[in-house]
Amino acid sequence: MLESEEEPCLMLIVFETRFFSMFQLLQISHNEASWLAVAIFPGIVVGAVVAKCFAKSCGPRKLILSTALPMLVSWLLIGFSGDKISYFVGRFLGGIGSGISFSTVPMYIGEISEPQIRGFLSSLCPVFVVFGMLFINVLCRLFSISISALIASSIPLINFVTFFWMPESPIWLLSKEESKKAKENLIVLRGQDNGLKEFERLSALNLQSTEEKTEFLQFFKAKENKKALLIALGLRSVQQLCGSTALTFYCQTIFRENDKILSPGSATIIFFCLQAVFSVFSSFIVDIFGRRPLFLVSLSCTTLTLLVLALYTFIKSYTSIDLENISILAPVTLLINVIFLSLGVRNIPLLVMSEIFNPKFKPLALSIATIYYAFLAIIITQFFRITKDAIDLSFPLFCFTGFSLVSLVLYYFFVPETNNKTLEDIQKTLQT
């Protein structure tokens, strides 16, 4: 049976007694619960592959609209199924929708937005992911899983109805040689004068799609593409190797072990509220301070908080020092960690990825990065669970600290600033 003391923050839902009873009834073991928590990531891999296969033929707008179906079915299975297989399938389908979104939404925003506001708009992608986590946590504090899932299922429907009226990416239309429609959409997005100027600038670029058979060869032939892909994979690595996903799934475990001040449920709500607030704050300042300074500050402070949390858990587990008087240190440090994580590490990678790739190769590049991110999330989350259970919580925390420190050095030396730069400027920087 599922042991509540060790259960991860499954489906990012705050579990109370009625939820434990349901999962005990379904006989979900601790190991199965950990895999259910990450079941979304194999779906993300499939979604990224789907996005890659259909990005050129369908365009980002149609792909984004298509996410409504797997998302809707996912919530209905989670809310109204009576067996654990349906929970896994529901999570997997939700992952497919997420994989398509992660591969196409940054591309779409990067292609329709002006450089001056591109950072703000692109950084809203992870912001809404955080709001989604907060939303479902609050719902499940108030309602049953069935009612919560029913309410959540309205979100993909609302997205479909509202996004249906958005224009297609002008860059994609130019790649399909639909110049007239591209010009019309640019005028809608930029206004008459700016739209025509932007159309002339984009028309001068070679945006025609490459053949599928030669796309990989052409992509890896250019230095700027290889460099951009290494940066994208590196940024996705930082997000996972600093423990962001693992700590999100297992935040209740840490709060439950230090529940003198706040209940685990209340602390988890605060955890996601802080993520939401500071992710929004980051979106407003990312174009002011730039990507590099904000990311470096975020990662530096994240590394420091991980070190404090690791030292605290190590001393608590392996020494006789009484930490009762400072037991609040662990949950407070975790909350501070998520504040600094939300200021840059959580938001900026997706933003930078939407800016650094040539539009011709962006579907391929973003799909590769999304697949890599999903596999890494599974590995790191399971690594966290296994080492926490087999050794101690301090071990994965020390590992995350070391990874973050190395990432800080690599980011400083190898990732360029993209703030307020056009596609041409960024490509020239990557060529050097």
From TrEMBL:
GO CC, alphabetical: plasma membrane
Which keywords accompany this UniProt record? Answer: Cell membrane, Glycoprotein, Membrane, Sugar transport, Transmembrane, Transmembrane helix, Transport
List, alphabetically, the Pfam families matched.
Answer: Sugar_tr
InterPro entries tied to this protein:
MFS_dom, MFS_sugar_transport-like, MFS_trans_sf, MFS_Trehalose_Transporter, Sugar/inositol_transpt, Sugar_transporter_CS
Where, per UniProt, does this protein localize?
A: Cell membrane
Q: What is its main location?
A: membrane
Spans through the membrane: 33-51, 63-82, 120-139, 145-166, 269-289, 295-314, 326-344, 364-383, 395-414
- From the Swiss-Prot or TrEMBL record, give the protein name: Facilitated trehalose transporter Tret1-like isoform X2
What gene is this protein a product of? Answer: LOC115890115
